[in-house]
Each structure stands twice: as C-alpha cells, then as structure tokens.
Task: structure prediction
Amino acid sequence: MWRALGMAGMAALILAGLPAQVPDVVLTRPGQIAVTAITGEVTLTVAGQSRLAKLNDRVRVDERVATGRKSLGSLTFSNGAVVELGPESEIEVEELLQAPFPYGQKPETMKAEPSVSRTQIRLRRGEVRLAVKPLKAAQGSAFVVVLPAGKARVGEGAFFASVRMAAMGLGVCAVELERGVAEFEPMGGAYAPMPAGRRLAFAVEMDARTGAVTMGEMPKETAPPKP
Result:
C-alpha cells in the first residue's frame, strides 16, 4: 500500500493515466432505487423530514440514507448496481437518470446495465461497498461516488469507499477498487485509472464554517502498510 498520498502522491496518480473521455449523453428520465436489505435501523431523510426505511421503500434523488449504530442497509438501483452501507454511514443520492429499457428486467438478474444511465452519490460519513454491473461507459454511462477527497467513477466491479471525520474537521478518506474498472479524480486533479487491490488514503481537513476542504499527507500512524 502507499504510505501516503499528499501532493506528490496525487500528482503521481494523475500522471498514471489520462482523463476519461465520454460522450455528452442527454438523459431526462429518472431511474429507480429500492431499499433491499436492512439490519438494525436505516433512516431516509429529505427536506428535513426523516422516516425509518422499510424493505422495498423507494429512495428519491436528493434523499439521504443513513444507518444507525450496528446497522446495515442495501440499495438496489435500476441499472443493476447495489450499494451497501456500513454501520453509522450516510449517503446522499444526488443524481440518477436512465434511458428507458424493456419492462420486466429485474436488477438482480442483470448481467450488465440494460440502458445508459448516470448516477452520482455522495458519501458523507462511514463506509460503502458498491457492486456495479458493467456500464455502457462508451455511450456515456457513469456511476460516480463523491467524497471530500475527490470523485471515483466506477465502470464495473466491486468498489469500497470510506469517510471518517473527527469533530475538529480532521479526517481520512479511503477508496479501493477491489475488482473491475474505476477511475479516481483527487480534489484539484484529473481522473486517472485506479489499480485494483490498492487502498488509496487521503488526509483531509474541512472548515466547519465554509465547508472548504484541504488535503495533506496521511499521518504515519494511520498510513496503509506497504504491500
């Protein structure tokens, strides 16, 4: 594992590949998201109103999904992707658009996404694991995960991300492509391919007043060990 990814590490990551070029796709129809697994307590919040989630509840764009202590939750997207939230985790669904596809296809039986889609979620705290069916990336499909340290664009496979922030605004973001295809764009950088099996960790500091984020080197005591 890399011991640290400060400014030098980010530069190396950027140089590892060129930003991906994808066509400009126009999508206007929303996709669908369902709550497909709950252990413990899962809460859905939109416009300041919260409710406890139940199996098969629909999740809307701009809705936040949060798990309680010792709780887990899974969301299944109409493009076949599954997002699993760990304990005390929270995501916000910022975008889900998808072209029409034949009625009757169930996400759990899909081998690949059935139509072009564009998805973006924001990990606010905790950790998530994604299982993404092969996307039509050449046609403009994208599944983006936003963290304080940057953005990951997952094309297919299994992906992990975590955000751990302390009360003083100091924290660590980590991303790992467990298998498949993904790119990462560190804050202020450009997308570059992610190597499978390597966890990338970033130290971040968030200004409580403005929300501005700065990045630095990983503290030695929390840096991932070398392989």
User: Anything to note?
Assistant: The two ends are 5 Å apart (CA to CA). Residues 1-20 have pLDDT under 50 and may be disordered. Helices lie at 7-15.
